[in-house]
Amino acid sequence: MSRKLSYTAEAFAARVRMSKEAALFIVVEGRDLDTPFYEGIAKSSERVRERGYQIWLIEQITRQVPDGSGSVLDVTAGGKIAQIQLFEFYKDTDSLSATNSAGKRAILFCIDKDLDDVAKILRRSPHLAYTPMADVEASVYAFSNQAAGLARATSLSEEDAAAFLAQHPDWMGSLAKLWRRWIELCALAIAHSAYCHVGTTKPSKVNTETYGVLDSAEEAMALAVIRQKSQIPLQRHASMERRVLNRVDRMFVADKGRRLVGKHWLIPYLIYLLKDYFGSAPIGISNLKHKAPVAFLDALDFKGSWASPYRRKFEALV
């Protein structure tokens, strides 16, 4: 990541155009895991290494937005919304790519997919790369050597970690199946642009005691709140909801439900499973929320086939 604190959006685009050292400028969302994750992918490509790359946090790039009184404010913000806004600005100003005497130069925004695919709000561009799982952290868990990562995160032996995983070989997929209705409701809330208690940062509100059976009363209430808070015209509700639920169903039919569960859900569920499996035995689950991402990242092979779509995306721009 660049040490320079920040640029305006215009100055950053100028830096890209004039760069002699780097061909690819990768803009990422999160502070903790995104930079080492995308750097590992970039380093796994000989072409990208040779052409040069830089990784920037979205919050390092300042954007100007109207303040409602005829003036503008300089805004430095993180998150996916800021990434999409900056992408749209660069697309509108034809600033996503350039060529100078050293060759092609390009900006690539690496973005968490979340539930955008089933909510049908994914944007498509050579300059956008979405995570294969819901987010970077979920992708790390899905594609790492899970036994090695779990052992490092919990101080278990690899033998004990492997035994646990033999009982829960698809723990991410099992959470997706357990929380399928919550996933559907979260996708509907996104599609409705409904800001409410239903969302991917919150545990299921429609399963009894979080991981129990579906509570039909809570489910009905959640759906009613989503519809009440909807920003979509009422006459479009039924058809839009049907399309969203069909897309979710296709993911589960294709055994891809695990791609719909993200970082806010996964570690609490993993702790729940570990406690159930090991009982009162001492295991290192304190602070697992912070230890697991790093431990699993250390167990991730960036040359694996899982990273091939990323490499193709990176290499196409340089």
Highlighted features:
single chain, 318 residues, alpha/beta, 2 domains, five-stranded mixed sheet, three-stranded mixed sheet, 14 helices
Distance between the termini: 19 Å
Following the backbone from N to C, one meets helices and strands in this order, namely EHEHHEEEHEEEHHHHHHHHHH
| Most strands sheet | 5 strands, mixed
Count of beta strands = 8
Rg computed from alpha carbons, rounded to a whole number of angstroms: 21 Å
Query: Which class best fits the helix and strand makeup?
Result: alpha/beta
Number of domains: 2
| Average pLDDT for all residues | 93
The number of helical runs is: 14
Structural summary, described in words:
This protein has 318 residues and is α/β, with parallel strands linked by helices. The protein has two domains: 144 residues, no CATH class; 154 residues, no CATH class. Helix content is 48%, strand content 12%. It has 14 helices and eight strands. The strands form two sheets. Strands 2, 3, 6, 7 and 8 form a five-stranded mixed sheet that branches. Strands 1-4-5 form a three-stranded mixed sheet. A hairpin with a 2-residue loop joins strand 6 and strand 7. The model has no long low-confidence stretch (mean pLDDT 93).
